[in-house]
TrEMBL record:
GO terms for molecular function: ATP binding; ATP hydrolysis activity; GTP binding; metal ion binding; ribosomal large subunit binding. This is Ribosome-binding ATPase YchF. Belongs to the TRAFAC class OBG-HflX-like GTPase superfamily. OBG GTPase family. YchF/OLA1 subfamily. Keywords: ATP-binding, Magnesium, Metal-binding, Nucleotide-binding. ATP binds at residues 11-16. InterPro entries: ATPase_YchF/OLA1 (IPR004396), Beta-grasp_dom_sf (IPR012675), G_OBG (IPR031167), GTP-bd (IPR006073), P-loop_NTPase (IPR027417), TGS (IPR004095), TGS-like (IPR012676), TGS-like_dom_sf (IPR023192). Pfam families: MMR_HSR1, YchF-GTPase_C. It comes from Pseudosulfitobacter pseudonitzschiae. One of its GO terms (cellular component) is cytoplasm. ATPase that binds to both the 70S ribosome and the 50S ribosomal subunit in a nucleotide-independent manner. It comes from the Bacteria. Its cofactor is Mg(2+). PROSITE patterns: G_OBG (PS51710), TGS (PS51880).
Amino acid sequence: GFKMGIVGLPNVGKSTLFNALTRTAAAQAANFPFCTIEPNVGEVAVPDARLDKLAEIAQSKSIIPTRMTFVDIAGLVKGASKGEGLGNQFLANIREVDAIAHVLRCFEDGDVTHVEGRVDPVADAETIETELMLADIESIEKRLQNIVRKVRGGDKEAVQQERLMRAALAVLEEGKPARVVEVDDDDLRAWKMLQLLTTKPVLYVCNVGESEAAEGNALSARVGEMAAAEGNMHVIISAQIEEEISQLEPEEAQMFLDEMGLSEAGLDRLIRAGYELLHLETYFTVGPKEARAWTIRQGTSAPKAAGVIHGDFEKGFIRAETIAYDDFVGLGGEQPAKEAGKMRAEGKSYVVKDGDVLHFLFNT
Ligand code: GDP
């Protein structure tokens, strides 16, 4: 599954957000309620109205949404890259996630201490990014000597690694994140192997006050400008409201949202933004027993998509009987779609599309 790390300075609302994410009534009602893997790791059901629609048509007994994992990575402070405040452990946690949700304090509250003594989300973002850049510089410098030795010894792969490390180092030393480096397709694998923290995609989460959740405020607007300039995404959320919503039953939650002038829970927006950020999409398997959603990266071939369900499905892949979501719903289910000629037999080279309803045929 895909993992999103929640980072940010202390007291910005990370834990509040994490708790809201993992304790929502919706997450609880899902077939696999959020399971705590560790106290700071939770799996969240990805809300998708299409899945409910498919299950209704196929009269599926159970509905199983796809999941996203969130990790609450506390403890990032100024100096973390030097190992202060158990910094190295936190940096190791960040290394393992696919993307970073960077929570920024955009609420004013005299009762909640700010570590730097002032509320300035743009400066906070820079503080954290600087720590991540310093950590990347340090990790590259540590490895570079060894790589240079290998290059002298005639190691071909090391030549590529050294070139990529130096490219990363050059931008990092200019104070820019490694993600600004343009990487050729041929280098992508080796680039990923460097496991740099500042190559992870970032989503800024502006934690605003309760009355500002719909429109945001001047601070979140500044974050929005910064994000746009960097080519990153941002969402506006009130972690406190989300925590309150997470304790309500779904109907009550909807009423509460309406009262606040919000069209949907911030958590749903956060999860969808995470999907967009990671270029993820969903396909479905639908039958009388269960309707289930599965997550893949955009551009995934049918056998690889089958492999998400089980490795044997990928190995023995023959074909995928495919019905587009709109056809399945528009025509009223699998049988009518089939009769209307809308079920396609797709082979190994087929690239799965978001919303496809798939049935895999495979050799065992
Ligand atoms: P963390 O250290 O980043 O995990 O921050 P917490 O989630 O523990 O929040 C720190 C404090 O800020 C707690 O007392 C929260 O209740 C409070 N807090 C979090 N979000 C908000 C918010 O949107 N508005 C206000 N006023 N307080 C908040």
